[in-house]
Amino acid sequence: MANNKYGILIDYEYCTGCHSCEVACKKEHDLAEGQYGIQLTEIGPWKINDDKWEYTFMPVITKLCDLCAERTAMGKVPTCVHHCQAWCMYYGTVDELTEKMTGKTRAVLITPEQ
Ligand code: SF4
Ligand code: SF4
Description:
By secondary structure, the chain is α+β, with helices and mostly antiparallel strands.
């Protein structure tokens, strides 16, 4: 059965930790200090072995996210997706995003309440 619920896919393998999504969301929704619709988390850096490091950036979407309802009603993509510097965020239906996830190993799909 088709799943036409909308969500956001973050392919965090390619997230550079630039904070643009976070800032864009705060501005769009005029959020108070300390509040975020999306907030960047950072893990590492630590050395795993001689060739490998753990250093991961992952933006977390919070309960304040309304999937940019006003923007999407006008046919625009959410502002976090629009401003992602690494083009690693996608907006679409669960079916579209699930297909896009195929073969990715470090990606998350979020479907905030709409
Ligand atoms: S979809 Fe809109 S409200 Fe949700 S995290 Fe992105 S910018 Fe913020
Ligand atoms: S805008 Fe894109 S690259 Fe920058 S922190 Fe957000 S998800 Fe990562």
